[in-house]
Amino acid sequence: MNTKSYLTPTRKYKSLISSSHSIYRVVNSTLEVKDLVGRLSKLISQVFNASSCQITLIDPGKKYSLLKCFSSNKKRYLDERKTLITDNTERKIINSCSTIIHNNFLGLPLVHEDVIGLIILKRNKQMPAFERTDQEMIMTLLEQAIMGIKNLQLYEEQQKIVLGSIKSLVSLLDMRVPQEYTHSAYFSHLVVAIAHEMHLDEKQVQSLKYASLLHDAGKVDIPLKILTKTTKLTPKEYGIIQRHPMKGAQILRPLQILKPVVPIIMHHHEKYNGTGYPSRLKKNQIPLGARIMAVADAFEAMVYGRPYRERKDISSAIKEIKKKSGTQFDPKVVDAFLRTVKKISLKKYLHNN
């Protein structure tokens, strides 16, 4: 077996510096744990000239893997299933919180106060065996990687709590407002699909998703006799309706994590030509998320109908959206909407027509 190191000490030091910068960039440019683990497994495999790299994140009880990523020259897979850890070597690394280094095998625990996972590197038999310097290098590199993983885990947990709170608020609103005046379960999916079609980044998409769930929160302050009225609204009643975006923004503004959502909710009834409410913004003055919401909102209102308005078939609703492109709606958003409805299934809307 060839035991000669593939890097001299000087080259290893330079490689450590370069790799440390690479991991820093990966950690600070990734928003999801699964993406971070995937990118790290590929990068670490390249840095250590390994034929494969496996990163596994475990549950607090240390019995199950919650996320496992395997990268090699030939394949890469990600397993997000909760799976009992049965491999003896993996169990030994986890339970003893110690490194195993033997010839072309290197396994280390991922430690942040306690063991949160493990990493296993393997080399082909033709490659040099792992050395203690490899162990030292990877432990140094993993310090910032582990911190990045833990921060994203905490962030994702926070997002789950926020989403749970949002769903509770929506449920309270739906209990107060008759079903005919609320959105379908598909509305949020349509909004997100348009956002993806327009290539918005994940943070923008997430804000839009939250806004799509909460954009009518301000209606909780509107008297039911106005909300459920089937005849034409008086000027005074319409004025009360027009205040609901501002009221919704006031309700959500104290929640710091929903700060990006507030402008979307505030302005989703603005019109592209400046005739909407509450601020008569026009064109690019209107937040992009609000422009997207406006198109999806109008489409849903037409195909599901309202007690004060007859429902339209899907084809007629799409024609109406196209007709108002450049006046009520942003033409770019309308184009994205038209591409979206060709890609997604509209059977759910047909079912309700």
Q: Mean pLDDT across all residues, rounded?
A: 85
Q: How big a fraction of the residues is strand? A: 5-15%
What is the CATH topology assignment of the largest domain?
Answer: Hypothetical protein af1432
The arrangement of helices and strands along the chain is HHEEEEHEEEHHHHHHHHHHH
Largest beta-sheet characterization: 7 strands, antiparallel
Q: What is the CATH superfamily label of the largest domain?
A: Hypothetical protein af1432
The rounded distance between the terminal residues' Cα atoms is 72 Å
Helix count, DSSP H or I runs of 4 or more residues: 14
User: Which CATH architecture of the largest domain would you pick?
Assistant: Orthogonal Bundle
The parts where pLDDT drops under 50 for at least 5 residues are 1-5
Q: Report helical residue fraction.
A: 40-55%
The chain-level structural class is alpha+beta
How many distinct beta strands? 7
Task: Just give the CATH class of the largest domain.
Answer: Mainly Alpha
